[in-house]
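B., you asked whether I could sanity-check this one before it goes into the benchmark set. Here's the sequence:
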Amino acid sequence: MTIRPNGKRTEIRNLPYEGKGAGYTILGDLIGASRRGQVEYGDGTWTVSRPHSNEVILGLAERYGRVKVIQHGGVEKCVDSCWKEGLPENAWLCECACAGRNHGSGAPYKITVGGGGPGGALSVQASAPHEFYVP
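And here's what the prediction gave me:
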């Protein structure tokens, strides 16, 4: 089973089948659903409102033993004084937003913007999804 954010909702894929309508009951009980529409189903995917993500993750992990969580979003940033002038062997000293991941690499991230700031140009790229299992 995989749980991941999608806009204002959290998707639950591959929820084990336990009978007709059981998914509504299982997820509804986990989030304390009090009205229709709080748990939705379509195209093989269940969804709940994003604020209920933690309850769903912990509840499904307790019920089924293990769930895979995929987190999307975030931006990696690095300034040119870091990637150009930093020494890779001193990455732990990096004070840039990249926290040493791009320190002294000689290459900016995918998109470079600005250049008038104290650290020079800023390069950015979308963070890769973070995948992990609970528990």
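One thing to flag: The longest strand covers residues 2-6. Otherwise nothing jumped out at me.
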